[in-house]
Design a protein that fits this description.
Length: 410
């Protein structure tokens, strides 16, 4: 059964057939089944084509030899598997790899692959820019343009998997923007010097954007990540990170089972209003009530991760750690302390190693599992909050959820 929104998608795609081909990356399994049923094909075509696209990395219908010739021709006429264009491909000295990806409308977004011994985590973007305007985040400074489509979200995984699998890279013809890089631009050379994982085993939606403000497209993309005929990632290997869009957290908990990360960053409303202006709409008390409902709904199968960026002298004092312990009481959680990654004009400093240790010790002693996130890919501007891409800002028109921050020029 297709949902009403998928039916609308199908109708609109049909109307546009003569002009524009349907990008099959926009479909989750349900949408594929609806699409093939509409064409008079059997529903199992859905899983056949998903395997070709996601497991064999094939985008040319001509090669899909278990589909009839007639169907292949029909697909050729009306559909395509359209991936994003790679604008640049950079490798950090620590093995982190960052892709700058060009969207059809010219905007540029970023994804980052973080290899470790036992896993490879791909950090992907959900929006072009971000409307939330968190005061310490470089992405937020760029403003907001639009939501990514399901296809644009899933294409980030398709491209990363393909490039990592082949151990080959695309030419980095345009590496617009950053120049301080001591990491390499990859051009054609295979990088065998990297001994770490070369497979995407985990996906985190912690790149540009607020995933829960692009709800339907993110849900469809997450379904593909977890579908056995696409990437087949287990639920604990897919994380959606949110700054705390409360109604969307509730909705999400009833329709998807994956890991949730919440960007907390402050333990009282006064400070959180300043750091994460979305807090004015959904204050801490409401956010934590939503976290508790989320855990109840998911039967506490996974702990919620709280992300907490350590800002020197702002939120990194022992009293903040103690406030945090009170907030977390009774919730199955994991705290991720993120060293602040500075950028020009941010106005914040990175907490000292001592401050971070003191903070994490207080939490650990209270029985709260606390991990200090390693900063990776700094030399290629791939660390948390450094993803900026290159976007045409439309936030004046589209910023709906947040009041402008006091003193910030809009
Ligand atoms: N909007 C979502 C997804 C973005 S996740 C969310 O807020 O969760 C990106 C993570 O990196 C968030 O936890 C964000 O707060 C954090 N971050 C942003 N800027 C940062 C910076 N300069 N240094 C370290 N972490 C940062």
């Amino acid at each position: 059964m297709s949902t009403p929104s998928q039916q609308v998608d199908l109708i609109s795609s049909k109307q546009a057939d003569s002009v524009k081909k349907q990008n099959l990356l926009d479909f989750d399994r349900e949408a594929f089944v609806a699409y093939f049923t509409e064409m008079g094909e059997k529903p199992f075509r859905a899983t056949q084509i998903m395997k070709w696209i996601y497991q064999f990395g094939v985008t040319d219908f001509g090669q899909m030899n278990n589909l009839s010739k007639a169907l292949r021709e029909q697909l050729d006429e009306s559909a395509e598997v359209k991936n994003l264009e790679i604008a640049s491909d950079k490798l950090s000295t620590d093995g982190t790899r960052k892709w700058l990806l060009r969207l059809p409308d010219g905007n540029l977004i970023e994804s980052v692959f973080i290899p470790e011994d036992d896993r490879g985590t791909l950090c992907i973007s959900s929006q072009v820019g971000c409307a939330l305007d968190c005061s310490f985040c470089a992405t937020g400074r760029q403003g907001f343009n639009r939501n990514l489509t399901t296809g644009e979200i899933i294409s980030q995984i398709w491209l990363a998997s393909k490039l990592l699998d082949e151990g080959q890279t695309q030419h980095s013809t345009k590496t617009s923007g950053k120049s301080k890089s001591s990491g390499k631009n990859i051009s054609g050379a295979s990088h065998t010097e990297n001994p770490l994982s070369k497979k995407v085993t985990n996906v985190v939606m912690m790149g540009m954007g607020e995933p829960l403000l692009n709800f339907d497209n993110v849900v469809r993309a997450v379904r593909l990540m977890m579908d056995d005929f696409a990437y087949g990632l287990s639920k604990r290997r897919v994380t959606v990170s949110t700054a705390g869009v409360v109604p969307a957290m509730d909705r999400l908990s009833t329709i998807l089972d994956m890991r949730l990360a919440v960007s907390l960053h402050a333990t009282n409303d006064e400070l959180r209003n300043e750091l994460v202006p979305l807090n004015k709409k959904y204050p801490i008390k409401e956010l934590f009530a939503a976290c508790r409902r989320f855990v109840d709904q998911q039967n506490a199968r996974y702990r919620i991760t709280f992300e907490y960026v350590m800002l020197d002298g702002v939120n990194d004092q022992p009293e903040h750690a103690r406030e945090l312990i009170k907030l977390l009481k009774g919730l199955p959680t994991l705290i991720n302390l993120i060293p602040f990654n500075p950028f020009a004009g941010s106005g914040y400093g990175t907490s000292s190693g001592n401050a971070v240790r003191r903070f994490s010790d207080i939490l650990n002693q209270a029985g709260i599992t606390t991990v200090v996130r390693k900063t990776r890919g700094e030399d290629i501007d791939a660390a948390c909050g450094q993803l900026a891409g290159k976007i045409q800002d439309k936030s004046r028109r589209e910023r709906r959820f947040v009041e402008p921050r006091f003193g910030m020029k809009e």
